Amino acid sequence: MLKRDYILALIENFFNALARLIEQRKSGKTEDSLALIEKCYASLHLDKEQRLNADLELLAERLNSDEKPALLFLEILAGLLMEEYYVTAGNEKKLLSRALELYQYVDLRDRTFSFERREKIEWIRSMLDNEQYGKED
Q1: What is the pLDDT at residue 96?
Q2: By C-alpha distance, which of 106, 7, 97 is closest to 52?
Q3: What would the pLDDT profile of 105-120 be if each residue is shown by its tens digit?
């Protein structure tokens, strides 16, 4: 029971942080956003090298424990990478590419279909295609 409560509190904290990040971005007040993003990454115990370059299976294994379900936290990580992409004004394309990899990985393995996840996958693909061909939205 305590582990389940801990997981729920941890998940709630991540989603609250993501909501704050989205709210800051929409209001144009992103000064503290990178610090909040880094705090979230630190709570996942992932440095930049790991979150951008680690093998997805190893990353899932690292995030999976009795306390943290891997697929959920991989999806949270993808959301954080997308927010970091927004905050850096799209200057780090690797963030978007990695978010796409993570969403696709989760989509293939999760037993629950998610329209929201599929929309994010398609949005990222279109952004990457536009950047590849030098197009703008």
Answers
A1: 94
A2: 97
A3: 999 998 889 999 999 9
